[in-house]
Amino acid sequence: MSVMSIVWMIIVGFIVGVLARFFYPGAVNLGFWMTTLLGIGGSIVGGIVGGLFSSSPDGKFQPAGWILSIAGAMLLLWGYLNYFAK
Question: By the 8 A CB rule, do 16 and 75 touch?
Answer without folding.
Answer: no
